Amino acid sequence: KNEVEQSPQNLTAQEGEFITINCSYSVGISALHWLQQHPGGGIVSLFMLSSGKKKHGRLIATINIQEKHSSLHITASHPRDSAVYICAVGMDSNYQLIWGAGTKLIIKP
Amino acid sequence: DTGVSQDPRHKITKRGQNVTFRCDPISEHNRLYWYRQTLGQGPEFLTYFQNEAQLEKSRLLSDRFSAERPKGSFSTLEIQRTEQGDSAMYLCASSFSAGGLYNEQFFGPGTRLTVL
User: Fold this and answer.
1) What pLDDT band is residue B42 in, cutting at 50, 70 and 90?
2) A42 CB within 8 Å of a chain B CB
3) CB pairs under 8 A between A and B
4) Do the bridges between strand B65-68 and strand B75-79 make them parallel or antiparallel, or are there none, so unpaired?
5) Which of A56, A73, A107, B109 is least enclosed by beta carbons within 10 angstroms?
């Protein structure tokens, strides 16, 4: 079992739909990242959170430390949101990030 | 500051050749990380520097791979005798830490290596 699990693996939706991507982890963490990667592109950090909720534009990220679960929401989705969304966790005791496999999101116009 | 930069962005080489990639971190960042991402997979940790010291290496980093950060600023990742299995995106990230706690990593655009 991977230490960081994402669901769904693939998601196709229509423009305007509300999108939710989930991340569950099994280790104690210091922080959780949500990152975005466009096809053939580098990685862009969207959020780093260790508790609660963060919002940036149409993106919302939440984390529940007790349940070891985080969600990334996209409101009013747009085709330009099409990308791979990756969850990764960081720990004090281990400097490297532990990565989920990513969720490939396609938003159709 | 323009963030983390990597050079080259793309590299195509023939099997058996040596390649070297460069990463320039955000200037005040003392930590630098290398990751590898193969097609359809999430990134995998390769190695990590605190200033010029290489503190951790993944078992993925075979003896054909070597990384340096000679002055605690930019870093190079060299792959000797490349194999087709080395084809991947090589990602660099940097962060600032003042005490051992986890800090946010900022990523470069990556170098895509294709070994023919």
Assistant:
1) confident
2) yes
3) 60
4) antiparallel
5) A56
CB nearest to A96's CB, from B48, B100, B110? B48
**Distance separating alpha carbons of residues A103 and A109, to the nearest angstrom:** 19
Candidate from A31, A42, A92 with C-beta closest to B91: A42
How many other β-carbons are positioned within 10 Å of the β-carbon of residue B27?
9
Give the pLDDT confidence of A19-54 residue by residue, as tens digits: 999 999 998 888 899 999 987 777 888 998 989 999
Q: Are B24 and B16 in contact (CB under 8 A)?
A: no
Distance between CA atoms of B43 and B90, rounded to whole angstroms? Answer: 9
In this complex, is the C-beta atom of A49 within 8 Å of any C-beta atom belonging to chain B? no
* Residue A13 contacts B, CB cutoff 8 Å: no
